[in-house]
Amino acid sequence: MIKLVRIDHRLLHGQVVFSWSKSLNINRIIVANTEAAKDDFKKMSLNLSKPTGVKLHIFSVAELLEKIPKIETLNENIMLIFGNTKEVRQFCEAYPKIKEINYGGIIKKTGSKQFSNAVFLNEEEIADAKCLKEQGIAQFIQQVPTSKKEDLNTMI
Q: CA 122, CA 129: separation in Å to the nearest integer?
């Protein structure tokens, strides 16, 4: 069962991944990031960052969509992590079962607007978020399970 869908430009970020994994009893993490899926060094680095005992898979969005029927049959708690809004939007448009997305970290860029201390969205990312909102997906900003949950849909 998919327990958390998260956007974080860092993908697997130490304390953050550990806290969410522990809080939600995650058995498997799936990183959906086309760039990382093609980069063996990045894959190796991500494998070193995962919590002990948690399975890790790194797929492009297309690969994830191919594998989602099998993933749905797994008797595990799964966290999906995307590196950007574009790829999470692509995934959600093709797989309309996602009901909630956690925004964890999106880096500040030229022309981006600050939504929290770690989430900065430019016009394209805001457009992606609006598309996801229109699909009826709840979007929230929350760094770790113990921090305040902020409703992004009311901010965009």
A: 11
